[in-house]
Design goal:
The chain has 93 residues and is α+β, with helices and mostly antiparallel strands. The protein contains 3 helices and 4 strands; from the N terminus they run E-H-E-E-H-E-H.
Length: 93
């Protein structure tokens, strides 16, 4: 899994980046996305940042990318509504 956290001072740029990330993962908090890990997806994200965002960074803009290994996934502590993310859901009709 990859966690991407970002902050852009420019609203338009921030919205564009969020729309881009939504293609590859799900929003878990404001400006934080969880993305299923694959080297191909990570390369796409890094390339997009390098070509379309990095040159336009302002002093206050930032992007953090965290790769979370399988053994570390088990160590994640979840609270509030996040604690239900890993539970199986059963639908009865």
């Amino acid at each position: 899994m990859i966690i991407v956290s970002y902050d852009f001072s420019n609203d338009k740029r921030r919205a564009k980046f969020a729309k881009f990330l939504k293609q590859y993962g799900e929003k878990v908090q404001y400006s934080v996305y969880r993305i299923r890990n694959s080297q191909r997806v990570l390369n796409i994200i890094l390339t997009e940042i390098a070509h379309n965002y990095e040159k336009k960074f302002e002093d206050t803009d930032s992007i953090y990318i965290f790769s979370v290994c399988q053994s570390c996934l088990k160590k994640i502590k979840r609270y509030g509504s996040a604690r239900h993310e890993e539970e199986d859901v059963i639908y009865l009709s």
